[in-house]
Input
Amino acid sequence: MEKKVSKLKKEEIVLRVIKIINVIIMAGFFAAVWYLYYAERAIVQYYNKGNWLVVFIFAVSYYIFGRVYDAFQISLNKISETVYSQGLALVIANGIIYIMIWLLSLYRPNVFPLLITLACQILCSVIWTTLAEKWYFATFQPRKTAIVFDMRE
Output
């Protein structure tokens, strides 16, 4: 029994690490566009702590919306469903951050760098989801299950 519990905890830890890697990759894309384009155009020039906070807010909002839309359920969803969920979470997180950047600027910031970043993030999501699903099903064997249903009229 203890071996079975240990195996389940190991599986959960490994899956959490894989999910965190996804969030770090997506936040990395946003950090690149923030540091290379938007940070220098903000009214208040942040130093490292402020810039890190903006990237952290993006990462947390992406993670929260990803959890809401099951964007990290590689064991249950198809690749297309996972990519769609991650894309939806990315659109919302980038939208929130764009509004935040707008509030930090004197004028409406250019949206194209963020849209290019979004396209790169979605492409990365396709690659990550495909690799994560292949890894998951190669690493963890399917478990025996029983499906019980009833059709009532």
